[in-house]
Amino acid sequence: MTVAEGDLLWEPSEEVRRGARVGRFMTERGLGSYDELWRWSVADVDGFWDAVWAHFEVLGERGDGPVRDGDPADWGVPAGSEAAMPGVRWFPGATLNYARNALRPGRDESAMAVIFRSESGDERVLTYGELATQVAEVREGLRELGVTKGDRVAAYVPNIPEALVLFLAAASLGAIWSSCSPDFGAPSVIDRFTQIEPKVLVAVDGYPYNGKRYDRRDVVRDIQAALPTLRATVMIPYLGEETEGLTYDAVRRPGAELEFEEVPFDHPLWILYSSGTTGLPKPIVHGHGGIVLEHLKSLSFQQDLGPGDVFFWFTTTGWMMWNYLAGGLLVGATLVLYDGAPNGDTLWRLAAETGVTYFGVGAPYILASMKAGLDPGREYDLSRLRGVGSTGSPLPPEGFAWVYEHVGKDPLVGSFAGGTDVATGFVGPCPLLPLRAGAIQCRGLGAKVEAYGDTGEPVIGEVGELVLTEPMPSMPISFWNDDDGDRYRESYFAMYPGVWRHGDWIKILPDGSSVIYGRSDSTLNRGGVRMGTADFYRVVEALPEIADSLVVDTGQLGQDGRLLLYVQLAEGQELSEDVIGRLRTALRSTLSPRHVPDEILAVPGIPHTLSGKKLEVPVRKILLGTPVEKAANPDAMANPEVLAHFTPGSGQ
Fold this sequence. Notes:
By secondary structure, the protein is α/β, with parallel strands linked by helices. It has a domain at about 525-645: GMP Synthetase, Chain A, domain 3. Helices cover about 30% and strands about 25% of the residues. It is built from 21 helices and 36 strands. The strands form 11 sheets. Strands 7-6-19-18-20-21-22 form a 7-stranded mixed beta sheet, with helices on both faces. A 5-stranded parallel beta sheet has the order 9-8-10-13-14, with helices on both faces. Strand 8 (about 150-155), helix 7 and strand 9 form a beta-alpha-beta unit. Helix 6 (about 130-145) packs across helix 7 (about 160-175), helix 8 (about 185-195) runs parallel beside helix 9 (about 215-225) and helix 14 crosses helix 16. The longest helix has 17 residues, at about 130-145. The chain is globular. The relative contact order is 0.11.
């Protein structure tokens, strides 16, 4: 299918419009369109989030206090400014508990909560009643280990049911959860967990991946040795290996009653981490209330999920999408947890076997399926699929079109952009709006996303810095151990005081849709023409000879540099003069003559983070003279060995 950015690919049917949850909420407000609803949600911020609490009947004590208070001056915002951030406190005086809202006593206990599949053949299911029982058992076990409100429970676990149970058990106590995937090396885990001083560590003996078994017992011992605050380690014998200390089953207390510690709205729920590729990972703290409200809003109104839906997202516990996937419990959906390699059509087959209605993956999986010539809509019964989510990196127009040609014509392709910082998307899908190739349908409700041009003013139809000019309740309540807020302020508010700068390039179109162009600190700037790397990759990776690519502009402030294109060739291919010529021609005709690279180099692999993002900035640093060992943290990378191929003179 030939497609251009902006081509209409999908429109909601009358049936979809009538049934959409966001449509019912819109009608309750007396508003006639999504655009009107969005404008109200960012103009009357307090009224909107108060309405979200009431609409979803959040379990907790709302209290009679304001929606927001706080003084931005406390966070160094200049006196007299009209800044809304930082320093906001949401729902002061309110109390609630995430786990209580996720398990929601009184809902149908026979409804399916979890479907688990592992590449090794492990299959399990849990109803909401069974999930609540296990949470109660583990909660009591953690309590007997001394875990109380405010303590940290650190987990080195894959995406398995035990991880979900442990998270909910910790949350029910008011303890603070933090997890890393077992594919992280010991230094990377230690960099994260030593900052938060956990009382309990939960870990697995190992994990299966791509047909191999990885024993992690030695890594667990290294982690334990680096955490002097540990009172106990709970081992999950996932591979059935012999382990030391308490086992997961030994911690469970059959017959325990499920209880919930009611905590303030901004009490810490979990600690996530920045990627840590260029420094110590920032420990990002989110609160119970902000996550409950944001995930209810996003999952229900943007993705149209609720009871009866089967929700899948391919993720590990080291990526914020695991936390977002867990949020499906808040809206009563069934979660599909998968642990294993996403080889070939594995995930499409999983979706068919488990009856997935919303299928979420990183954009690279969709592009890999396209390149591999897969046709899952014909191979498998995907008739229940209503939505296909894409995140992690921009999805080019061809990726959108491939879904409608080879997966199905009915699902809404919901491209998301946001991140770990807010544990959600700023821009994403809406079932009431048309979908155009390459574009993200809308700005999320309550997210006042704007594009700031060179003068620091909002622009429409032009590429600019993605900023938020009003706060959202799921913004971090703090960074751990950042008592004066310096790291927090520097990370988001240094460029525009009182305005959140996210670090992405975005173009907002007149109809409210948007296009993301990649990270603003890795943007190409050739002769004054500014363009995100996503456009570049779209052109380069359309060639069948190219498996992956990375582009770097070595220019510095006030000084032009060289534009270097690195390509990882598909198996059996070589970087011939013909391939180089076609790359240059495609870039010249599709982008501009300025974007033809000065040099095209073949490398064995393209560096990625553990969550699949390309590492343009560390490569740029290496090219400008930073030693490889200082440019990026290898333990935060999926393939650190490839960085050496980017050093000048390495003979790529």
